[in-house]
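Let's practice the habit of predicting before peeking. Look at the sequence and jot down your guess about where helices and strands might fall. Then scroll down.
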Amino acid sequence: YAFHLLPCGLAYQSTLNLLGNGVVIHLPGMFSEIDALAPEMNATGRLKISNRAHLLFDFHQAVDAYQEAQRGPSGSIGTTKKGIGPAYTSKATRNSIRVGELVDWDIFMAKYNKLADAHDAMYPGLQYDRKQEVTKLRELRDRVIQDDMIVDGTLLVNQAMKEGKRILCEGANA
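Done guessing? Here is the structure:
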């Protein structure tokens, strides 16, 4: 199995899996990974996302590629151009959007447009399709809500600890 964003616990049908507070999530990438695993594993009801996790957008990926191109061959840092660095920059500067904000589409859209406008202003000529991304995000947001994925991750983990359940934490390589 190829796990990139998803927790490897999905390989075990009896596990509940959580993408926690510190994760940045590109919804199209997450669902692409879920759908690729779907014939052999069903994530429905077994994958939860913390309402405090942050969202990674297509413009974050565009910024990642833009910044790498600006560095030139001698200054390249070898980014994957998946937008992870720029998404964490949005988180650090406190203007990012959390998964829990998907619940109210109007509030989400106001924040999304403000954040996208800020990136467009900082990086003139940024190449991404905002309209197409919003259409896709609306579709994926509906799927997240339908599958009841958004939870208070801190509460979920604390309840599991109180109940004496086994918990495995998984993180990225650094």
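How did you do? The helical segments are 27-37, 58-75, 84-92, 105-122, 130-146, 153-162.
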